[in-house]
Design brief:
The protein has 168 residues and is α+β, with helices and mostly antiparallel strands. It has helices spanning 16-27, 83-95, 134-138, 148-155, and strands at residues 9-13, 30-35, 38-42, 52-56, 76-79, 99-104, 108-114, 120-126, 144-145. It is built from 4 helices and 9 strands; from the N terminus they run βαββββαβββαβα. The strands form 2 sheets. The protein has a 5-stranded mixed β-sheet with strand order 5-8-7-6-9, with helices on one face. Strands 1-4-3-2 form a 4-stranded mixed β-sheet, with helices on one face.
């Protein structure tokens, strides 16, 4: 049987307590287990044992050079079920000073943010497969700034996003 999906991610952070507080505040994650220097968090709607592991390496740690001078992970992407939730998180991330950008990838509406260690992550809503037209598919050829109000008008604030959207 092939791989089904990403189950969880693990990040090295400078201060685990600070990172736990951030992910709780920003995305509503809850701690399911912790020990000195480590914490395991679960997203509100998740059935995973944990979705995010955090391991503390200390304040002396330098910034990640991934993508600038070394290879490495660019970002993690967390999915929300409605555009209303995406807007709520956009407001929260903006208030925390973490929102770094917002893009319209046609089939995906995405927010980009940085955690306290400068690690980038994405929060996205996927257009339901039943609403992906040929025009929407063609729109994937370019990335545009996200106009969340226009997308809510187009798709509705509470339309449930498409899990596992096919791009064929």
């Amino acid at each position: 049987m092939p791989v089904q999906r990403l189950n969880h991610a693990v990040l090295y952070v400078r201060d685990v307590e600070r990172s736990v507080a951030f992910y709780r505040e920003a995305l509503g994650f809850e701690v399911v287990m912790s020990m000195p220097g480590a914490a395991f968090l679960q997203a509100g709607g998740s059935t995973n044992d944990h979705d995010l592991g955090l391991f503390q390496i200390g304040e002396q740690a330098g910034p990640s050079a991934a993508g600038r001078s070394t290879v490495g992970l660019y970002h993690l992407a967390w999915e929300v079920d409605t555009l209303e939730e995406l807007r709520r998180i956009a407001v929260r991330l903006s208030g925390l000073g973490s929102l770094a950008g917002a893009s319209d990838h046609s089939t995906t509406k995405a927010l980009y943010a940085k955690d306290p260690d400068g690690l980038e992550f994405e929060v996205s809503w996927l257009v339901p497969a039943s609403l992906i037209t040929e025009d929407v598919r063609r729109g994937r050829e370019s990335i545009r700034p996200l106009d969340l109000d226009a997308e809510i008008e187009r798709y509705g604030a509470t339309t449930r996003g498409g899990v596992g959207v096919s791009f064929a």
